[in-house]
Amino acid sequence: MFRILLSVILLFSLTHATDTLPSWNEGSSKQSIINYVSTVTKEGTVDFIPVKDRIAVFDNDGTLWSEQPAYFQLFFAMDRVKATASEHPEWKTTEPFKSVLANDMHGVMKSGEHGLIQIVNATHSGMDVETFQEEVKEWLKTAKHPTTDRPYTDLIYQPMMEVIRYLEANDFKVYIVSGGGIDFMRAFIPEMYAIPEEHIIGSSGKVHYKDGKIMKDADIYFIDDKETKPLAIYRNIGIRPVAAFGNSDGDFAMMLYTEANKKAKTLQLYVHHTDEKREFAYDRKSHIGKLDKGLDYAKEHNWTIVDMKNEWKIVYPFELIK
Amino acid sequence: MFRILLSVILLFSLTHATDTLPSWNEGSSKQSIINYVSTVTKEGTVDFIPVKDRIAVFDNDGTLWSEQPAYFQLFFAMDRVKATASEHPEWKTTEPFKSVLANDMHGVMKSGEHGLIQIVNATHSGMDVETFQEEVKEWLKTAKHPTTDRPYTDLIYQPMMEVIRYLEANDFKVYIVSGGGIDFMRAFIPEMYAIPEEHIIGSSGKVHYKDGKIMKDADIYFIDDKETKPLAIYRNIGIRPVAAFGNSDGDFAMMLYTEANKKAKTLQLYVHHTDEKREFAYDRKSHIGKLDKGLDYAKEHNWTIVDMKNEWKIVYPFELIK
Description:
The structure is a homodimer.
Chain A: H1 2-15, H2 28-40, E1 55-58, H3 72-84, H4 97-101, H5 105-110, H6 112-123, H7 129-142, H8 158-169, E2 173-181, H9 182-186, H10 189-192, E3 200-210, E4 213-222, H11 228-236, E5 243-246, H12 252-259, E6 267-274, E7 281-282, H13 293-300, E8 304-307, H14 308-311
Parallel strand pairs in A: 1-2, 1-5, 2-3, 5-6, 6-8
Antiparallel strand pairs in A: 3-4, 6-7
Helix pairs in contact in A: 3-6
């Protein structure tokens, strides 16, 4: 399925090579993206941005693939708890593991941040980075998303992949700046999105170097969210972006940081989850991907707000196979 | 002078476009670099490395520019102490600032690591990153290296610049992975070496985000040296390099990490400071750029060891102006 999908995405891109953003309906968001790119790449004009400064940053969860009913990385961690439970008999009677093993999502959530960190520590440490990434790759081959029963890699947004390709075709460097785990993302994004490892920035755990290997330790090193997203951009990229794409208040600081770029015209775009039928509908009150303060600001400041329901012809690549 | 030098480097590169590594004497190091690059870029052979995996990492101080009699960044910090002393009358009587103001290098060194951190904190914090980089740029315009009386930017190694360009011409991605401060390096490396900000990894201080700016705080966040260099490579690049260039034991772990790459043939190169006349001669006993354990290992394992005195036709670009 995975290979078929990649072929379809490729084929679709080729047959629609003359269209820009073929999966987007004509509308204000498509127009604002195309206007922006056309304007800043026109040499000899005041808004022209030199190639070296064309840095675009994208959130991942909820911006490039789905994030409901919970971040996919949490499902990975829960599946890893189940897969390794026989080595930890104590988990049967200890929270949050007891709830994970009983498939009790409510119980897992009740364990709170402390419980989630325990789950992450138990499943994301004690091995080297390369071994961990192999585990993620293996998991993605068979794991199914709980409400759609599809492979998680089916649930990437075709219209956003087109935006990434369109930017790259115009000499933008595209970076992922996400709250997701850096090793988790590096296990699938290079192949699924065709974005290289070195352009993937995320949250990370502590690591240490031993005998030629990077070993993952049980402790959080850096959470890449809200006000720390600009810090991650500063550390890993070092130039202020000119375009930022997100879907939640977690991306708001990164978008403000981009907007504050004094040297260049900028673009800020929010993916607004308005499509209950094809995807999910949520914003101000969601416990995942909450978009509240950012939405108000975006409206006031004329940022691009994508209405998924009305502006996207299709959401997922598999809708192309018909 | 700066512009003249850049023109000369460019002109030299153009007129010698048919030569590979024109500032290198024929010898084992030049041969090993060319052999390596030719071998791994030959499609259809067992040693071929796909373009996406062609990651090369370079130390900076002592590998791409001089580092004696002390790291140039320390001279910057000392000059900043002097420039801002009027705002800090207490410095006249407090170490390590008293020694800095008296130009007493021995006193500065005697203040030890704690003293150096105080000097760095006093000069590298309390402003936003962009303002700090402007200070570095301004300083580089007029500051002179203490023993050669030349601008610091004169003291980059022309033969190593040619290695960087040669690798890039063969589709390698070149990264700086240095103990130097990330903001200090980003202020001059993009223009001097033509390596972009996002390929520059270094030590960094704590920062926080405020009102669209990255503010530098007085505290060390990450020292990029020895066993932490592989961690920095992992965090910022995410793929194991295939080629590593250094000059000291501080680079040893990064080179071992590269050598441990199981997927590709690798190259490890040490610049060995053997040229007392044109540059400096030091290795096992130097307090800066000590090369001891690494030198033994390099000899035993057939790493490339550059004998600066005998293998480099010229050291610095200004030697081309004659």
